[in-house]
Amino acid sequence: MKNSLFSKLTAVLVALSLVFLVGIPAFAAPDADVMTDCKGNCDQCPSLVIPGIFQSEVFMYDENGEIAVNADGEQYSGPFYLESTAEILEIALSKALVPLIMSLVLQRDVADLLATNLGDGIGEIIMKNIKCDENGKVIKDVRATKYNTSVAYLSDHDREHILDAVPLQKYIDIAGADHLYFFSFFSLGNMIDTVEELYDYIQLIKKQTGHDKINIVPISQGGSLANLLLQMYKDKGRDISEDINRIVYVVPAKNGSSIVGEILEYGLIDDDEALYNYMIPRLMGYSWSSYLINFAIRLFPKEVLNSVLDSAVDGLINGGLKNSTLIWGLCPQENYPGAAEKYLSDESMKEIKRQTDIFYKAQCNADQNILDAIDSGVKVFDICGYNYSLYALVDCWDDVNADGVIQLESTSMGAVSYGVDVELPEGYVTEDPNCTNPDHNHIDPHNIVDARAGLLPDHTFYFYNQNHERTGGNDVVMQLAVELLTNEEFEDVYSYPDRFPQFNTARDTKHIINDVNRAKAMDKSSLDPVVAEEFETAIAQLEAVLANTVVDAEALEVAKLNFYVARAHAEGTEYEPEQEEYPILTKIMKTANDLVYKYYGPRGWFDIMI
Q1: What is the tally of structural domains in the chain?
Q2: pTM higher than the cut 0.85
Q3: Which positions ≥6 away from 487 have C-beta within 8 Å?
Q4: pLDDT tens digit string along 507-549?
């Protein structure tokens, strides 16, 4: 996932991680017959990744079929394909400048002009090039890059994009690049069209590879697509086991995201402390500038600020986001009736409502469809993160256990937890356990999660303190997924507890592994023997820790420090640990922010002064 503030804000608001359709041709046969060398005769099933929100490469095209450029001649950049900076400023100033000045001077929003104009402006700026029509079809020519072959036959660029989004090189090492496929789609497009395309793609993979069945890997938003896919097999009168061997869910939005559902049904957070203390700093990584923004928003009275924020959200939704049925796929089933009444009750939304009702049915049937798939012979596994609160954008942000973007109830398919770092109450008993074997202990080591309540207690793996957006950087998660995809003897959480226990811990090693590989390739012949030995020892120590798939966070930090110190010595420098930018300033700003809230609460500067 990208780390910029803008990508975090937009990804969270449209959900999600926190994962391209009309105008996109259906999957066509490749120019030549593309078959694997095994032609279906090997013991490895091909695997298809169904990625998360904004993990597909997507472009906007002009009337000539070329990638479109804005007024400055710059290629439009996804996922929102915004106009040039000058055009954005023109829209913003024309709509909001006068109401903004009036609100600052008068300390009130005269006739709701600021909220209304700002909401309209945000909707126009962000949704202009990506909105869908009344049928849920993307109006402009927005297309995902389509991969009609396996990774083995793609360009270096396409292969690098896929493996950067989903680091599955170990899968390629075992099964071969000709067994790995990637389904790309526009995350704000049409759910039904996308899943029909996904269904056809599965048939194409079987034809190309000669295999009778494939594995699918629904990731994040891909989990919502999987809901409709399983329902589609039933509606077509087909048994999914005819095509699917294994399903390995990875942090799936199986029941959407509470961030999306709560925003659609109720709007942004109303809690004053979260708004003035947590929301912006959390989104911006608790930087000094995030606390500066907290001070800046106090230029407006609380009522004006809340009104503006609500209007900004409504501007996005009414500006076109409500016509995206894929976004509705991220709405939890408990939020859907209220949200649909709020945004889809108008006659003009009749067709969108018809389509979202189809998904809602699939979402409500998801548990039973998964169990039916298992009964027919499909092996289903789930990997999820927990103990990381939701972004502080909705009222339930600190009431549920989550991975930052998706609540645990959704990613775990029903596990029970009462919040981040909140232990299960004394005397707690699972109400409806899905595992009644007294020899199976499905309570996590921190006494925070009861996995017995999940749909698949013997087939769901949990990673403590795992951030949704950094799941791809956790090499153990990726290794676990690969093992589940390539090893038919991997049956459940008890198959390899010494290597892959049901409850594990988060780690982010993407950059570390790259650094180790570069270090191993270095020419060390000219180094001082003592320095060379120190370097080799540090590399070996770090590799040993990385090889341990039962995560020891403390041991990893020690090995990392030793490695980077030794590498610096080998390069003739001294190791300088990466430091937070302006840490003293950040601490001062945070302290000042906390004190202002403690003594003055959710009040604007004008109210405080008088």
Answers
A1: 1
A2: yes
A3: none
A4: 999 899 999 999 999 999 999 999 999 999 999 999 999 999 9
